[in-house]
Design brief:
This protein is mainly alpha-helical. It has one domain. It is 81% helix and 0% strand.
């Protein structure tokens, strides 16, 4: 009888220890996914930078410049919302494009020939950023940053469709893998935690599909082997 009572008293603490152990393991897994996703994103950008310096890719500086700014704002908004370690993946998405823009000037391979489409997309992106500055609300900031990033992506999506040989498709494939790993690092099941990461997966998948699936045969001869 006495031993049974002691066993009953010990059960709650045993469950508590088990829960703490599981929580610690999950936290370690999320951190690992965030670090791996961050590393993969940098590898993708380094691949694109190398392609620029080898004259194998011609980035649209409008897109890449805004891609460098928008994730930094989204990451700051996620940090304010208390998202946690997965914010590192979003911030790394902004650091990589900054390297691409710099490489485009060093290699002289950037295409900054602005047309009406580029102006409209750039204006929409900047307008979304301006609205975020006015509101200051983290959730609103994430929504607006998604709209801004999507508007910034349109010139490159259009260029990838019309001139696929000017893009480094392997870089986008690596980036897509990084985005998928990055979303696995999200711990909290909230809109603030998942929204921008989910958008990044969708945007990367769109570019991969455009560059790989629709015209795979024609691309095989137009693009250098990766």
């Amino acid at each position: 009888m006495v031993s049974a009572r002691y066993a009953a008293l010990l059960r709650p603490s045993g469950c508590l220890l088990s829960s703490v152990a599981i929580g610690g393991t999950l936290r370690a897994m999320h951190i690992a996914f965030a670090i791996v996703g961050l590393a993969i994103n940098f590898v993708a950008c380094l691949s694109y930078v190398r392609a620029i310096l080898r004259s194998e890719a011609t980035p649209n500086r409008v897109t890449w410049f805004l891609w460098a700014i928008v994730p930094l704002i989204a990451g700051a908004a996620q940090w304010r919302a208390g998202v946690g370690i997965s914010t590192l993946v979003v911030l790394s998405v902004g650091a990589g494009p900054a390297c691409v823009v710099l490489a485009s000037f060093v290699g002289g391979m950037g295409s900054w020939r602005l047309g009406p489409f580029d102006y409209v997309c750039g204006a929409c992106s900047l307008a979304a950023l301006a609205l975020w500055a006015i509101t200051g609300d983290p959730v609103t900031a994430i929504v607006l940053s998604i709209l801004a990033d999507a508007a910034a992506a349109l010139p490159t999506i259009r260029k990838a469709w019309l001139q696929p040989a000017t893009e480094n498709r392997s870089a986008y494939l690596i980036a897509f893998v990084g985005m998928v790993v990055g979303i696995l690092s999200v711990r909290e099941a909230t809109f603030s935690a998942y929204a921008f990461n989910a958008y990044l997966v969708a945007a990367s998948a769109t570019l991969v599909l455009i560059l790989y699936l629709p015209r795979r045969r024609s691309l095989a001869g137009a693009l250098p082997a990766k």
